Amino acid sequence: MAPETKRLFKISLITTCICFVLGSAIMVYKTLSIIYG
Known about the structure:
By secondary structure, the protein is an all-alpha fold. The chain has 1 helix and no strands. The radius of gyration is 16 Å and the shape is rod-shaped. The chain crosses the membrane at residues 12-36.
């Protein structure tokens, strides 16, 4: 794999992880606000 491709793959992987974590956090927050709201 070319270094440039590797770098792009790494960036997209990190972006996906961040989006996943943010999505999970929002889901948890919404669930908690429904339970305790």
